[in-house]
Amino acid sequence: MHYRDLIVWQKSMDLVVAIYAYTKDFPVAEQYGLTSQMRRAAISIPSNITEGSRRRGKDNRNFLIIAYGSGAELETQCEAGRRLRFGDSKKLERAESLLSEIMRMLNTMVNKET
């Protein structure tokens, strides 16, 4: 199966778009701080899904675990954004909803690769 056919990859790309939309309105002072961290964590998820899919075999599980770890980082960063009252709360809710779904999917995929 091509990585683009994976629902988890498609949703993680939607998450990237959602995180960019959410962080767009962050304070300029956060450009190299939380904004950058959140965007890097978000793009890391589909990037690692892609790399693992291309490598296949045992490596795939390792890349899924890395993608899951990036999602965990993003969970904390979203909470920081909430507590700091950055961005639009509706955009944050959209991103967190996608992230939650992606994390469940990745968890299932990692456990199947065992």
From TrEMBL:
Entry-linked InterPro entries: 23S_rRNA-intervening_sequence, 23S_rRNA_IVS_sf
SUPFAM superfamilies assigned: IVS-encoded protein-like
Cited Gene3D superfamilies: 23S rRNA-intervening sequence
UniProt cross-references to PANTHER family, sorted A to Z: FOUR HELIX BUNDLE PROTEIN (PTHR38471:SF2)
Protein name, entry field: Four helix bundle protein
